[in-house]
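Listing S7. Sequence submitted for prediction.
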Amino acid sequence: MREALRSLGWRDVAEIARARILARDWAAGGAIPTEAALAREFGVSRATVNRALRALAEEGLIDRRRRAGSRVTARPTRRATFALPLVRDEVSASGAVYGYRLLDRELCPPPAEVALRLGLRAVPLVLRLEALHLADGRPWAHEDRWINPAAAPGVEDVDFAAVSANEWLVTHVPFTTAEVTLSAEAAEGRTADALGCEPGAAILVLDRVTRLGATGVTAVRLGHAPGYRLVSRP
């Protein structure tokens, strides 16, 4: 449905286009309307549309090629800033066979800390997933994740026993910023149980929050098994 808009600037056009990508009205990997078509729809100049699309390209949400038009990127990231890693790729790069197991799933109100990190002003229901990533059948990382359904359309219908949230989000939900914290912690509770280590064992923990504009998409905590080494490759 055409938006009822007046006196749009390029930022307005970019925001509408970003929302369409988020809602998957423009599917990942698919072509988007031409600059001329968008200019007609919004009643603005092609220069305004061009500037808006350039901004989305700089965010890594679309790919622009001369004479080939623009497409939504298949794995949207913010370019030259941060690319979300796939745990599967990390395990495979170590020479091991990747495995995955969903441990728990529920739709529930988030804790206050999670709501704050995701920027949720109300207290909506958020999808919580607990999973275990494996390497050659042994625990690699315990995942505790919260997903904002408002930022990830269709997430409630996904079979996360068949695909990890890590892989689904990377291929289906764009983001513009990511906040990452690494810390050394003592394994406790369900994390220690899932990793098969003694309570109090030293583990590396990665906490990450991704956002699309001001909207929080997901907050995840990955506790890695004792002996894990973080290797950065170009």
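Caption to Listing S7: primary sequence and predicted structure tokens for the chain studied. The domain at 10-72 is CATH 1.10.10.10 (Arc Repressor Mutant, subunit A). Confidence is low (pLDDT under 50) at residues 1-5.
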